[in-house]
Amino acid sequence: MYKFFQNLVIVVCLVSPCATLAQKQKQHKNPTVITVDALKKAQVMDNFGASGCWFSEGIGKYWPDEKKERIAELLFSKEVDAQGNPKGIGLSAWRFNIGGGTAEQGDSSGIRDVNRRVESFLSPDGTYDWSIQAGYRWFLRRAKDYGVERLIAFSNTPPVQFTQNGLGFKTIKDYRSNLRPDKYTAYTDFLAEVIKHFEQEGIRFDYISPVNEPQWDWSNKFGEAKQEGTPWTNEEISRVVKALDNSLTQKQLQTEILFPEAGMLTYLYGGSSTASKQVQQFFGKSSNLYLGDLKHVPRLVVGHSYFTDSGDSAIVAIRKHAADTVKQYGVDFWQSEYSMLGDGFREGIKGRRSAMDCALFLAKLIHQDLTVGNAAAWQFWNAYEPVNANVDTRYYLIALQPDKDFKNGNFSETKNLWALGHYSLFIRPGMHRVMTHRSDGLQAVEAAQKLMVSAFADGAGKKVVLVAVNYENEAQALKLDMKNFPKARTFKSYVTTASSDDNMKAMPAQKVKDGVTLPPRSITTIVIERQ
């Protein structure tokens, strides 16, 4: 089973089970031919992940073992059941929130939702309490136990004792950091100490992210704040990254620094604010803010796909611009946060969108980030959140129905979970995206409302994975033309449709030469292993 998931995988978005091309040939006289050349390589994939922010605490600390263990299995497991159906989505990255101490402040924190206040390992008297964030730590440990390859720590605010207003958010709108100017080293020493502690406990963080969405003002009236947060100018980001690089070095840690966590992809290459053109500012060698020569700074920028998802032409243009910019400056790009915060997912349609509509749009954004933006990693926000009956299922992978005190409750899978799983379970770290050619000649914008296909191969030349998203209301026929991948005779496929039974459902093995029929409005992963 494990050997199987190291081989070639193809993911296709469908709405009904796959059938052979021969079975559907009367309905599909002209199948789309997808040519996959295993030797034409694009970016190397690092991970697919999600964040366990806020609600990890209540679930991990209080919920019954059976429930929280099943949630962990859904997120992290790479195993299949007796019928071959995946037990989970096999995330290869998990994001852990290092809190700022707003939970200890209680109502004095000014954050209205008690579940969005986060404890801090650093007490006001300067001592460390490693027993706090128990729920967060439970999920972190389970991610480690399941073999999640990338563990990432992030901070939304410095500890409140280091901020200018003593709070975990801003109360004035000046777009400058809430960190006191004399506390940069104190803040980064704190982050490094947290990393060091967990490493001593056998949990190594591969990355630490010290700033989050620096372009937003994060200002609210006291009592109305939704979460911890602070803005940062590019100058302030440069200063904190340099300080963190020094703190990590002094503590002899190998953890690398992720930044700038741009609030929108456009800020990576454009804009006119004090936190804009961040690729050029941080990786342009003539820039006064150049950070590319620091020991703990990889040739990597991370940004969020929020609010860059309105209209297929804009989606493609923004990602192409980002890809061109990072290539020019010799860095890689990760998409490190996305959920459907804006209205782009509605695609001009009024009223609520179905769970499958949301899942298909999510699959499309992942596809565009990978194939146009050349993202080497893709991470979702947020793994789980409480259900709002009046809101589409666009914010989370797992829907929570918690009790009032959040010490128990129920949960349910969403189609978003499986949409991400079509990529995360099968495209493993170290696989590379390979180029495809389609016989219908459709470019990225045209294909976005029809059929999208991406392909990935392992380094040993034994496995290819395709993810196909069928956006249309009719079934689509595919014929696979495999180049430089000999003896590819059969494939397995996994299908998600609107049906409650089709959640990455394993289908019978089929012959490559027969092709595959993709159900309407569906996602399908095709896994081909060399025999």
Provide the descriptors you would attach to this structure in a database record.
single chain, 531 residues, alpha/beta, TIM Barrel, six-stranded parallel sheet, 12 helices, 23 strands, 24% helix, 23% strand
% residues in beta strands: 15-25%
- Helix share bin: 10-25%
The tally of strands reads 23
Instruction: Identify the overall geometry.
Output: globular
> What is the average per-residue confidence, as pLDDT, rounded to a whole number?
94
CATH evolutionary superfamily of the largest domain: Glycosidases
CATH architecture term of the largest domain: Alpha-Beta Barrel
CATH topology of the largest domain: the name is TIM Barrel
Q: Identify the CATH class of the largest domain.
A: Alpha Beta
Radius of gyration: 23 Å
Low-confidence stretches: 1-28
Number of helices: 12
Q: Give the end-to-end Cα distance, rounded to a whole number of Å.
A: 15 Å
Derived from helix and strand composition plus strand pairing, the structural class reads alpha/beta
Q: How would a crystallographer describe the biggest sheet?
A: 11 strands, mixed
How many structural domains?
2
Provide a descriptive summary of the structure in words.
The structure is a single chain. This protein folds into two domains: 141 residues, Immunoglobulin-like (Sandwich), CATH 2.60.40.1180; 378 residues, Glycosidases (TIM Barrel, Alpha-Beta Barrel). The chain starts with 8 loop residues before the first strand and ends with a strand. The chain is globular. The chain contains twelve helices and 23 strands. The N terminus is likely disordered. The chain is an alpha/beta fold. 53% of the residues are buried. Strands 1, 2, 15, 16, 17, 18, 19, 20, 21, 22 and 23 form an eleven-stranded mixed beta sheet that branches. Strands 7-6-5-4-3-11 form a six-stranded parallel beta sheet. A three-stranded parallel beta sheet has the order 8-9-10.
